[in-house]
Amino acid sequence: MTMTTAERMNQKDPDDKVSPEQVRRGRRTALLLFAIGFGPMIFATIMYYTGWLNPSGHSNNGELIQPPAPLGEMQLQGANGNPLTDRFGPDIPDAEWMMVVVSDTCAADCEKLLYLTRQVNIALGKNANRVNRSAWLGAVPDDLSARWNDEYSSMERLSIRDGGNPKWPADVNPDQQPRVLLVDPFGNVIMHYGTEHTGKDILKDLKHLLKLSQIG
Known about the structure:
The chain is α/β, with parallel strands linked by helices. The chain contains 5 helices and 7 strands; from the N terminus they run ααβββαβαβββα. The chain has helices at residues 5-10, 20-50, 108-123, 142-151, 199-212; strands spanning 63-70, 76-77, 97-105, 131-139, 156-160, 179-183, 188-193. The protein has a 7-stranded mixed β-sheet with strand order 1-7-6-3-4-5-2, covered by helices on one side. The protein starts with a helix and ends with a helix.
């Protein structure tokens, strides 16, 4: 039977196998691409947490979470109903840093943190689009609800996934006191802040991290 040109092109030679060297070369290429894309972020994180190659050492103002807490443990979802973790990770090209205000009841201390994160975001200037803001608030007073669209329209309201049982990072208890969680582009909560911190404290940490990071 005479084969067509297309059939001859599609027919695989049984001896045409991938050699071990080609497999090794492919792995080296994949590792190189990963290092180029995500190496700077990993390197920056190590430098920030250890002070390595930083003559003056590192001094974060926020409360460092060690080891970083996976965002997925908090069982949060966005306003669209999708898991918040879908927005983070090495395979998300536009992943951002995020400040998340968490509070069971948003009283005066909680609103202070809402205000601080808004002002910090503004103060970031050209880097403001690299940091997102959101909030999980169990209960919101009527007065704040009435002002929300005017004062915090850019802050997404999060919720707990149906049936979710959030596991908050160590020393974070939204039932007792509001906190600001700082989430890196990989979806890890790396620091948290409270009313004992100032906007300058948060801003200094963020500026330092954004300067070191090539992702987010």
